Write a sequence for this structure.
C-alpha cells in the first residue's frame, strides 16, 4: 500500500505531506524511511516515560537514516479543568522535555487533553476552532513547524 501511495498517486506540487505513523520502529516506519530517504520528522510522545522511550527509539532511527527531526510534540500533556482552570497531569510530566533533550530537538508544542464542544449541526468533535484555546495551540504548533522548515 505504501508503494502505491508514494509511487502511483499523482500528488502535484505539495507544500507538505504529513504521515501519522504508528509509534516505534516497526515495519511501517522502516519502509517509510526507505521509501523517503530525505524527509523531516516530528516526533510525538506523551508525558509518560515509556512513551517517551519508544519515541526516542523512533527519533534515533530517524537520525540514523539521515532524516531531520523538526522537533518534538507532547500530546496529552495535561488536562485543564473547565470548572477550576487547574491542570492535572494525567500521564505524568516531562516526557516531551526529556525527549527533546535526548534527541537535541526543540519542543514544538504541548497539546492538552481536551473537552471538545459538540455542535450537533456541524459534528466535528476532534477539530478545534481557531479561537478555541486548543485550536490556538495547534496554530502555534503549525507556525513553529513552518519556521523550522524555512530555516
Amino acid at each position: 500500500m505504501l508503494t502505491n501511495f508514494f509511487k502511483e498517486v499523482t500528488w502535484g506540487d505539495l507544500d507538505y505531506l504529513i504521515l501519522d505513523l504508528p509509534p516505534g520502529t516497526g515495519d511501517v516506519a522502516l519502509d517509510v524511511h526507505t521509501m523517503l530517504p530525505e524527509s523531516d520528522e516530528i516526533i510525538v510522545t506523551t508525558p509518560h516515560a515509556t512513551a517517551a522511550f519508544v519515541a526516542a527509539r523512533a527519533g534515533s532511527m530517524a537520525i540514523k537514516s539521515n532524516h531531520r527531526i523538526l522537533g518534538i510534540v507532547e500530546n496529552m500533556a495535561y488536562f485543564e479543568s473547565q470548572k477550576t482552570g487547574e491542570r492535572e497531569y494525567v500521564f505524568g510530566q516531562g516526557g516531551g522535555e526529556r525527549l527533546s533533550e535526548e534527541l537535541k530537538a526543540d519542543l514544538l508544542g504541548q497539546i492538552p487533553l481536551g473537552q471538545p464542544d459538540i455542535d450537533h449541526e456541524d459534528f466535528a468533535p476532534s477539530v478545534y476552532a481557531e479561537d478555541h484555546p486548543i485550536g490556538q495551540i495547534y496554530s502555534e504548533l503549525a507556525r513553529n513547524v513552518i519556521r523550522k522548515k524555512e530555516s
